Input
Amino acid sequence: MAGRKWLIWGAVAVAVAGLAYVVSRPSAPAAGDVDASAFAGLVADGVRVIDVRTAGEYEGGHIPGAENVPVDTVPQTSQSWDKTQPIAVYCQTGARSANAMSYLTGQGFATVYNLRGGIVEWSGELTRGSAAGTAAGAVKIATNGTPVLIDFSGSA
Output
């Protein structure tokens, strides 16, 4: 009888420890608009990141690992995406990506995040160049938390 009592107490202890872990571990933010800090966490967690700006804006500087899907091509491009996979979208100021988030959510995508305020709120590293340029070792811009102005005029 005493052995059974210890077995029950052991099972209770394991259950309590498991519950404490579940309650204490960090969880992903709720889908929708998120600040730059939460967005950085999503990027670090490997969430699919979509930059909905134009190709020129993307080449000027984008979040490392982001895919460039201009907002007007989201309907066609997203048809092949897994609707159960979390997606994080951003643009320059948050307006185009808010539209993309709304569209994706309306199409049945389960978890979509939008960088509130856009890339101008991003304080992390940026990669410069196209996706092909990134593979060849694109220039990285260290922002050190300071806003960066990127000239897209093409003049030197």
